[in-house]
Amino acid sequence: MSTIRHSPMTYMVEAVTCLTALVVFASPAVRADAPATTGEPELRDDGVVRFRAQGEFRSNQHAARDSALRDAQEQIRAWLARQEPPIRRVPALDFINRHMVVQQETPQEETVGKDRMYKITVVVELSPSQVRDLRERERAFAGLWALGVVLAVLGVVVAVLRIDEWTKGYLTRWLVVGGVALAAGLVGIWWFAH
Predict the structure, then answer these.
(1) What pLDDT is attached to residue 33?
(2) Measured by CB atoms within 10 angstroms of the end CB, which terminus of the chain is less buried, N or C?
(3) Which of these, 81, 119, 77, 76, lies nearest to 101 by C-alpha position?
(4) Side-chain half-sphere exposure of 108, counting CA atoms within 13 A
(5) Do 98 and 69 contact (CB within 8 A), yes or no?
(6) How confident is the model at residue 32 (pLDDT cuts 50, 70, 90)?
(7) Widest CA span in the chain
(8) Which pLDDT tens digit goes with each residue over 135-149?
(9) pTM greater than 0.70
(10) Across residues 132-136, what is the average pLDDT?
(11) β-strand pairing of 101-104 with 49-54
(12) Under 8 Å CB-to-CB from 33, ≥6 apart: which residues?
């Protein structure tokens, strides 16, 4: 009975092929960690989505506006998560404050003991072009992650082959096992971070 002996290169090529197929063809599950909204947004005829966000009572108007902007960001996050396909990237609070707030209502004032508390309501609009930009950024980010993982796996393959040459084949099996484990770890990191 003859035994077929494969070279380390054959094992590495098979491992890289499997890992590359996993990275390219498998997509991570959509996370359903979006918070519930306080109210349904208004969808206008021109495609603009309008959110009405009300913050909590705070000790000054600046903090009350920040609270309202955080509520608007959470409403936008929930709405984007319900889109098909879902969008996980959300505009930053600074971007919402500068580019998306179209109206701020008069602050509500309430006196608690000696302190004066403020509550602010803002109206925020999300245009179709902003949704497209968010979707483009998400796709670019996912593509860069995938490219980074593929390059890291190829780097592991090259490192294993160079070390195998350096050790003159004495550690081939251990290097293959270690290389496959490291490449699988890189793919796992990509999978969960994505």
Answers:
(1) 35
(2) N
(3) 76
(4) 12
(5) no
(6) very low
(7) 94
(8) 999 999 888 988 988
(9) no
(10) 93
(11) unpaired
(12) none
Q: What string of H, E and C letters represents the secondary structure of the chain?
A: CCCCCCCHHHHHHHHHHHHHHHHHHCCCCCCCCCCCCCCCCEECCCCCEEEEEECCCECCHHHHHHHHHHHHHHHHHHHHHCCCCCCCCCCCHHHHHHHHEEEECCCEEEEECCEEEEECEEEEEECHHHHHHHHHHHHHHHHHHHHHHHHHHHHHHHHHHHHHHHCCCCCHHHHHHHHHHHHHHHHHHHHHHC
Q: Which amino acid is at 145?
A: W
The domain locations on the chain are 8-29+139-193, 42-127
74 vs 107, which has greater pLDDT?
A: 74
Token pair in block for residue 40:
């349904």
